[in-house]
TrEMBL record:
It comes from Methylacidimicrobium tartarophylax. Its EC number is 2.1.1.302. One of its GO terms (biological process) is methylation. CDD domains: AdoMet_MTases. This is 3-hydroxy-5-methyl-1-naphthoate 3-O-methyltransferase. It is an enzyme of class 2 (transferase). Residues 116-325 form the O-methyltransferase C-terminal domain. GO terms for molecular function: O-methyltransferase activity; protein dimerization activity. The keyword S-adenosyl-L-methionine applies. Residues 24-96 form the O-methyltransferase dimerisation domain.
């Protein structure tokens, strides 16, 4: 008698998607990198065209151009009608070098490649990052962050407006004096300044990064609402009882636990009675098993920093409580993690 065939086993009785995601996720970045290298987006910004026309203008093969342009179309970066390719708004904004939000250079930058190739070695040794002197730390930051903050300025403009509204900016809280620490582009405080025309911001970062902050302020018509405090956030002297709101946007993860706790203590002194602290971070669940973005970001911190990591909302709440802010609320703002707002400090 023939043995019954188990069709379910042949067809696999589990979902392949998690594995396919792991091995396939490199393709999109390599496709965009090739198109940036070949000048595809710049060419299409000048003229929409067929594969033959684009290939002719770039001096490359028609066969290769066609398959590349079709892939970019399937990836929803280009549109195609009657054989003619054109930039969709997303590619026009992010992949044409003249755009203020250009991110095409990310495909070559250390942000994507970083030290991921050395992950196994890092796990073997317990990490790769070495301690550096403060002067060297500042030099590296001033080289690395201008590109990263351009990326964050694109990714977080929508969430920043949601955060500003959640903070009651321009409504329950008008004319706030804001301390934006490790401000980068200033994306979070710029959003508050948009929502509340009376808000004023003191922006703190390394001097070489503040030059960029200043340009973002000018670009968004907010230059006169900003003043600048250059220096290391751990050392810069902060005025006492001056601010209504301190913003910590994606900085505590790289500081790690010890320095973050110290910093929260210093911020408490810089806030007025009833001042608040807003934290934008990658927040994993308590077990650190999800959501995916925060958890994978934890690996990035492991690879690139000595003490950085991801911390749950409960851990931040504990540190905030210790700094004198017992009330911590969270607000969904349309990104991987909610905004945390701490209050209840000395009245
Ligand atoms: C990941 S970016 C975040 C920028 C911005 N807060 C945001 O959310 O888009 C980190 C920023 O912190 C700044 N930074 C890092 N360490 C710093 C330090 N010790 N003192 C001052 N700024 C620092 C970097 O220059 C960079 O602008």
């Amino acid at each position: 008698m023939e043995k019954p065939v188990d069709v379910r086993k042949f067809a696999l009785d589990f979902d392949l998607a998690p594995f396919l995601f792991c091995i396939d996720s490199v393709r999109g970045s390599r496709i965009v990198r090739a198109a940036v290298d070949l000048g595809v987006f710049s060419q299409l910004a000048k003229n929409s065209g067929t594969a033959e026309e684009v290939a002719g203008a770039l001096g490359v093969s028609v066969r290769g151009t066609r398959v590349l342009l079709d892939s970019l179309t399937a990836l929803q970066l280009l549109g195609k009608e009657k054989g003619s390719y054109r930039l969709l708004p997303i590619a026009e904004a992010l992949l044409v070098p003249e755009s203020p939000d250009y991110l095409g250079d990310l495909v070559h930058g250390s942000i994507l490649d970083e030290t991921w190739d050395h992950l196994a070695e890092a796990v073997r040794k317990g990490g790769l990052a070495e301690a550096v002197e403060p002067v060297e730390q500042q030099k590296r930051a001033e080289e690395f962050f201008p590109l990263l903050i351009r990326f964050l300025h694109v990714v977080n403009r929508g969430p920043a407006i949601a955060a500003a509204r959640a903070l009651g900016a321009g409504a329950a809280h008008r004319g706030m004096r804001i301390l934006d620490l490790a401000c980068g582009s200033g994306v979070w405080s710029l959003a508050v300044a948009h929502v509340d025309p009376e808000a004023r911001v003191t922006a703190v970062d390394f001097p070489g990064v503040l030059e960029h902050t200043r340009r973002y302020g000018e670009r968004h018509g907010m230059a006169d609402r900003y003043e600048y405090l250059p220096g290391n956030i751990q050392e810069v002297s902060l005025p006492e009882a001056r601010y209504d709101l301190a913003i910590l946007g994606h900085i505590l993860h790289s500081e790690g636990e010890g320095k973050s706790r110290r910093l929260l203590g210093r911020i408490a002194k810089a806030l007025r009675p009833e001042g608040r602290i807003a934290i934008l971070e990658f927040l994993p669940n308590r077990e650190r098993t999800g959501p995916l973005d925060p958890v994978l970001f934890g690996l990035r911190m492991f690879l690139n920093t000595e003490e950085g990591g991801i911390f749950s909302a409960e851990e931040y709440a504990e540190w905030l409580g210790e700094a004198g802010f017992p009330e911590v609320e969270s607000f969904e703002i349309g990104t991987h993690s909610p905004l945390l707002v701490a209050s209840g400090g000395k009245k």
